[in-house]
């Protein structure tokens, strides 16, 4: 059975919003971790906000250092979880999921293919974790306090959820790549 895996950039104070504003370095080890995602996943889950931000950008990237990721994300099937969007036709290979997320994910997991990854979408990641639909959470923890009122990955009133550490390794820039699995 396929796994649902999420990889997120997060600051020491738990901020996952707008990492482009506080991520000060991107090293070779982080690149390798993201490359592993591209190699092991062939289906993408997106929340409304990430879809809306990315649908206008990634289809326009055809060259440069991001061209490989752009090709992968543009060609891969994308499932967008939203109760407010009416259409996701603006980005090729996108399907709107506006019904029961658990049923949609269970159907995807039972199908053929590689892993299913959540791209960005911290709100979706929280929801999947709360509903026990996320199999693995990879956090790239940056040695920075992002602060300034940015949204955190988990709200202060989030319910208790136990996770087990699968692996943790530091990178040359001081980022820790930590992989967790929910305790079930």
What does this protein structure show overall?
By secondary structure, the chain is of the alpha/beta class. It has one domain (4-182): 3-Layer(aba) Sandwich (Dihydrofolate Reductase, subunit A). The chain contains five helices and eight strands. The longest helix has 13 residues, at 28-40.
Summarize the structure.
This protein is of the alpha/beta class.
What is the CATH H-level superfamily? Dihydrofolate Reductase, subunit A
Query: Overall pLDDT, averaged?
Result: 93
For the record, the CATH architecture stands as 3-Layer(aba) Sandwich
Helices and strands, in N-to-C order?
EHEHHEEHEHEEE
The proportion of residues in beta strands is 25-35%
Largest sheet features: 8 strands, mixed
Question: What class would the helix/strand composition place it in?
Answer: alpha/beta
Poorly predicted regions are none
CATH class: Alpha Beta
Query: Strand arrangement, largest sheet?
Result: 4-3-2-5-1-6-8-7
Total beta strands: 8
Radius of gyration: 16 Å
Quote the CATH topology: Dihydrofolate Reductase, subunit A
Query: Helix share of residues?
Result: 25-40%
Q: Determine the N-to-C terminus distance.
A: 16 Å
Tally of individual domains = 1
Number of helices: 5
- Tell me, briefly, the overall form: globular
